[in-house]
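FORM 12-B: Structure-to-Sequence Request
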């Protein structure tokens, strides 16, 4: 019996999610149906593909050998669908973006709204999580990162620079001791990441202020921002989050600013998918345009150079 694409699709979902329930959620199937599809595929191939354990489903040797061929079939189906949908300039279908929550909360909404307006058939999903996304497991079609990965079959494109700056609510600053230099921060509450939950070295920035542990902390930069906005203390925040927020004020603008960059990360094989490539072009263009507005809106922002080169890591 020749394996069907439907069964291979379930195989890939179970391999990536590590469970029948996770695969069922991803494919909108009930776990029992996913289990029957896997059993049918194993019968067709004459070999067990998964080992079940308390930790979930793990690939057997046969499953590991099948994985690259199933991914090739998936890519062929995606390219075929893209060819059928690709008539005209309008984008359609679903695109899922993984992004750190600072970018997802304070930058992507302004960038994505006009893209969706221009393409009514397009559905965009933003997964905002304070961690690195695994594109090899297809957790997202593309991801925005704060550092460039150096391993895996990925294409990495630097999108734009931004700044991390020190800020506090005006209400907090009105009643707090004056902050004239960095040494004055010692008497103030600092809000930041939970140290044990920092997932990228680019986010470990409180050391630059001489602070080992923040007085108030969260694994979400959006939560940190709203803590500070309510007068909890000071925090290092994204410069683009401050635009239009009259309740917040930069602190020590001449003495403290950290330059960081956003990178667009894609699976290398997706370069052939016209829909995803078109969307990524619109996303990069929109992020750069929005950051240009940010620099205009923040009089003390320092302009930075953007590099549009794309590298492929294998």
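FORM 12-B RESPONSE
SEQUENCE OUT:
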């Amino acid at each position: 019996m020749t394996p069907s694409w439907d069964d291979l699709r379930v195989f890939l979902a179970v391999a990536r999610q590590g469970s029948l329930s996770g695969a069922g959620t991803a494919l909108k199937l009930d776990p029992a149906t996913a289990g029957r599809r896997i059993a049918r595929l194993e019968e067709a191939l004459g070999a067990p593909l998964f080992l079940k354990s308390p930790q979930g489903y793990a690939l057997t040797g046969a499953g590991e050998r099948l994985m690259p061929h199933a991914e090739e079939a998936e890519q062929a189906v995606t390219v075929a669908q893209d060819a059928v949908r690709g008539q005209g300039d309008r984008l359609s279908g679903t695109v899922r973006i993984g992004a750190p929550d600072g970018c997802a909360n304070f930058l992507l909404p302004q960038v994505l709204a006009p893209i969706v307006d221009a393409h009514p058939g397009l559905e965009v999903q933003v997964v905002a999580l304070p961690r690195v996304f695994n594109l090899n497991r297809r957790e997202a079609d593309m991801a925005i990162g704060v550092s460039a990965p150096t391993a895996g079959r990925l294409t990495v494109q630097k999108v734009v620079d931004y700044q991390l700056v020190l800020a506090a609510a005006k209400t907090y600053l009105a009643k707090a001791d004056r902050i004239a230099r960095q040494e004055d921060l010692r008497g103030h509450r600092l809000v930041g990441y939970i140290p044990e939950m920092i997932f990228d070295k680019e986010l470990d920035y409180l050391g630059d202020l001489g602070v080992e542990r923040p007085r108030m902390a969260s694994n979400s930069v959006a939560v940190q921002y709203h803590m500070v906005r309510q007068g909890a203390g000071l925090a290092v925040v994204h410069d683009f989050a401050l635009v239009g927020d009259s309740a917040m004020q930069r602190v020590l603008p001449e003495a403290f600013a950290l330059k960081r960059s956003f990178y667009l990360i894609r699976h290398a094989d997706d370069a052939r998918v016209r829909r995803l490539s078109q969307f990524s072009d619109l996303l990069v263009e929109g992020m750069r345009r929005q950051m240009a507005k940010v620099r205009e809106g923040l009089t003390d922002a320092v302009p930075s150079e953007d590099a549009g080169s794309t590298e492929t890591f294998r």
